[in-house]
Amino acid sequence: MEAALKKHLPGGKFRQVCPRHSKQMAAVRGRGNKTTELRLRLAIVRAGARGWQMHPKHITGSPDFYFPAPKVAVFVDGCFWHGCPRCGHVPKKHSSFWGAKIARNRQRDRQITARLKGAGLRVLRFWEHQLAADLDACVQRILVELTDAPSP
To answer: N or C, where is the chain less crowded by C-beta within 10 Å?
Structure first.
């Protein structure tokens, strides 16, 4: 990942980051986040949806939830890490690094979505703030995709 980011940085170099801040950011979990992923998982179970997998390694991008039979991949994107246009932001401290990092994440998200759609999967992406604002609407959107699945 560093190589992909370096080409976006001035002089191709990272600035020295405070070790305390680096440790804080490294502690942010990519999976199992209670406010997003686990909350949606609980809601999916309550809604009665079955037959899904979490983070399947054999699917490009390792979606947060994957429903094999209807071929539906669901991603939960954190507003900060994935550059939400509504509430994401680039920190002022080390802004060149964070701007490049977030831009790279957004580019990767677009590429993964395109590859999965090209492989015949339906892809749903939810922003962290969408889950917080209306979890039921997100679950209903998933259920619609599951029930509207084309017959094999």
So the answer is: C
Q: What pLDDT is recorded for position 18?
A: 66
Is beta strand 65-67 parallel, antiparallel or unpaired with respect to 122-127? unpaired
- Cα-Cα-Cα-Cα torsion 18, 19, 23, 25, nearest 10 degrees, comes to 20
Other Cβ atoms within 10 Å of 58 Cβ, number: 7
Assess whether pLDDT exceeds 70 at residue 1. Answer: no
Rounded Cα gap, residues 50 and 71, in angstroms: 13
Separation of alpha carbons 106 and 102, rounded Å: 6
Express as a percent the part of the chain with pLDDT over 70: 74
Q: How far apart are CA 125 and CA 106, in angstroms?
A: 12
Query: With contact defined as beta carbons under 8 Å apart, do 106 and 58 qualify?
Result: no
Looking up tokens 């809601």 gives 43
Quick count: other Cβ atoms within 10 Å of Cβ 56?
15
Q: Which CATH architecture has domain 2-147?
A: 3-Layer(aba) Sandwich (3.40)
Asked if the model's pLDDT at residue 92 lies above 90, the reply is no
